[in-house]
Amino acid sequence: MKTAKKEFKEMISKSMASMGFDDLSSKILGILYSSTEKLTLNEITKETGYSFSAISAIMKNLVNMRMVESSKKGGSKRLYFTAKRDMMKLVLDRIKMRNEVFITPILKEVPGIIERCKKSKEKDAKEMLGILGPYHAQIIALDKIMKELVKITNKVEKEMKNGK
User: Fold this and answer.
1) β-pairing verdict for 79-83 and 39-40
2) What's the CA gap between 119 and 122, in Å, rounded?
3) Which of 127, 136, 151, 154 is the most buried (most CB within 10 A)?
């Protein structure tokens, strides 16, 4: 019979893999989410069986993605890692990051490209308008969806804090 910790670790690992994380990142996130303690690179290396350098590289990436936090304990040079467990905040951060990196720049640039195509005498300008128009409409729709997701997530988070 599996322990609850092992079952939870495997569930998190599978969930992360289904979201596009590679096997090692998924495995590390499963380990960190199921641990009540902050873990060192050495501890994670032992548990995964991967090299220290591979774990170190993945941990840098997970910290940069804001999935994991690193800290030092009282004067020690060792880094300790823990998963960010506030799922509501993680979801909001992901939505906001996608908006900042993907949607917002496109919303700023595509209208200018459309206008240049309208004024252009190049033979493919009309074809490009046929592509850009629907693309721009889809990005506008995605932006609305993302903003609604933020509103809904904030509302649910407040309800959870108020015990509803």
Assistant:
1) antiparallel
2) 9
3) 136
- Residue-wise pLDDT for 69-98, tens only, equals 999 887 778 899 999 888 777 778 778 888
Domain limits, the chain: 4-83, 87-161
Beta bridge partners of 70: 81
Of residues 8, 16, 9, the one with CA closest to residue 94: 16
Query: Using an 8 Å Cβ cutoff, are 46 and 80 in contact?
Result: no
> Which tokens in the block code for residue 111?
């209208």
Closest-CA residue to 25 (of 4, 54, 5, 1): 54
Q: Helix H segments across the chain?
A: 4-18, 23-33, 41-48, 52-64, 87-98, 104-119, 125-161
- Tokens matching residue 24: 């090692």
Has domain 4-83 been given CATH number 1.10.630.10? no
* CA atoms of 98 and 102, how far apart (whole Å): 5
If one counts every other C-beta atom within 10 angstroms of the C-beta of residue 126, the result is 11
